[in-house]
Specification:
disordered N terminus; twelve-stranded antiparallel β-barrel
C-alpha cells in the first residue's frame, strides 16, 4: 500500500512539474540558468466603429486587413524563484499606413510563494518602453474646417513602469490564475506632430512639424486564465483580459515658436488638453499548444476583443480579431 501511495504521489509531482514547465502555462517561470524564447506572428482583422473620430476621418465602418503583429519575448531564470524577461511587439497596418512598436517591456518577476500543494504567488515590475520610439501623428482639417488628430504609429512616446501581481494554483493537470497590474507613464515631449495642414493660417511662421508636452497617465490591466494539460504533448487554455487605456492630453507646445504666434497656437491646442480618446478593451483568448520536444513547443492562438471608448478615440472597433502561431524554445 505504501508503495502504491508513493508511486501516486511521485506521478502527480511529475505531472505538476511538466505542467509548470509548459511555456504556454500562465504560471510558467524559468528555472535557474534556463533561457526561454517565445516568437509569435499574429494576423489581425479590424472593422472600425462609428465614433466621431472615425466619422471625421471618413473611416467609420472600414475594414483593415491584414494587420501584421510580430512579437518576441525572451527571459532567463536567475534562481528558481527569480527571472528577468523582456518583450517587444510591432504592428503594421497598411490600410491606414500606421506602423510601429505597440509593446515594449523589460522587467523582473519574483515568486514569493510556490507551495507543495500548488499555490503560487508572483510579484513583478517592468519598465514600460514606450519612449523607445517617438509618438507620431498629424493634425488634418475636415471639409468643415475642424482639426482632427491622426496617429501615425502605436507608441505613446512615454517611458513608464508596470507594477503587478499574479496568483494561482496548479493541480495535477490544471492551472488557474489571475493577475492585476497598474501602469504609470511619465509625460514628456518625445513626439512629432505634423501640423502642415494648419501652418498656412500662421503666415509661414509655424513649422510643419512640432513637439508638444503631453501629460502623465495611469492605466490598469487585469485578467484570469485556466490552462489544461490534456496529454504529455497537447495542452490548451482559455483567458480573459481587461485593459483600460487612459486618455491622452497635450499640455503645451514644446517647440520654440515666434512670440507673434505662440499664444495663438497654444490657444488652438487648448481643446487637446483632454483628447477624449480613452478606451477599454475586453479580450477573450483561446490557446492550443503542442510539445514538439522537451525544449520546443508550437502554439496556435486566437483573440477576440470587444471595446468601448470616448467619442474621439481612433482605437475602438466593431470587430477586432487576431490569430497567429507562436514558437517557444527552452534552453
Amino acid at each position: 500500500m505504501k508503495k502504491i501511495i508513493s508511486f501516486a504521489i511521485a506521478t502527480a509531482a511529475m505531472t505538476t512539474s511538466a505542467l509548470a514547465a509548459n511555456m504556454e502555462n500562465p504560471l510558467f517561470l524559468p528555472s535557474a540558468g534556463n533561457v526561454y524564447s517565445k516568437t509569435s506572428i499574429g494576423l489581425m482583422l479590424k472593422v472600425t466603429d462609428s465614433t466621431e473620430n472615425q466619422q471625421l476621418r471618413n473611416h467609420d465602418g472600414a475594414t483593415e486587413f491584414p494587420i501584421w503583429r510580430p512579437v518576441q519575448e525572451l527571459g532567463v531564470g536567475i534562481t528558481d524563484r527569480w527571472a528577468v524577461h523582456g518583450i517587444m511587439g510591432y504592428t503594421y497596418d497598411g490600410d491606414i499606413n500606421r506602423k510601429g512598436f505597440h509593446l515594449g517591456r523589460l522587467g523582473t518577476t519574483y515568486r514569493v510563494i510556490d507551495s507543495l500543494d500548488g499555490y503560487v504567488w508572483d510579484i513583478y515590475g517592468d519598465l514600460h518602453m514606450g519612449g523607445i520610439e517617438k509618438m507620431k501623428g498629424s493634425l488634418s482639417l475636415t471639409e468643415s474646417g475642424k482639426a482632427v488628430f491622426n496617429y501615425a504609429n502605436y507608441s505613446n512616446g512615454r517611458w513608464g513602469a508596470h507594477l503587478g501581481t499574479k496568483f494561482g494554483r496548479r493541480w495535477s493537470d490544471l492551472t488557474a490564475s489571475a493577475f492585476v497590474e497598474v501602469l504609470r507613464t511619465w509625460g514628456n515631449h518625445n513626439n512629432e506632430i505634423d501640423v502642415s495642414a494648419i501652418a498656412p493660417a500662421f503666415y509661414g511662421m509655424l513649422p510643419d512639424v512640432i513637439s508638444v508636452n503631453i501629460k502623465s497617465t495611469w492605466e490598469v490591466n487585469a485578467g484570469a486564465n485556466v490552462f489544461y494539460q490534456m496529454t504529455d504533448r497537447w495542452s490548451g487554455g482559455l483567458g480573459f483580459q481587461y485593459k483600460y487605456h487612459a486618455t491622452n492630453g497635450l499640455e503645451s507646445v514644446y517647440t520654440d515658436l515666434p512670440d507673434a504666434i505662440k499664444d495663438s497656437v497654444n490657444g488652438m491646442l487648448e481643446e487637446y488638453k483632454d483628447m477624449h480618446d480613452h478606451f477599454n478593451e475586453y479580450a477573450f483568448m483561446l490557446t492550443l499548444a503542442y510539445q514538439l520536444r522537451d525544449w520546443a513547443q508550437i502554439a496556435w492562438y486566437i483573440e477576440d476583443t470587444l471595446d468601448t471608448g470616448a467619442h474621439l478615440s481612433s482605437n475602438t472597433t466593431d470587430v477586432k480579431v487576431e490569430t497567429g502561431f507562436r514558437v517557444n524554445f527552452l534552453f
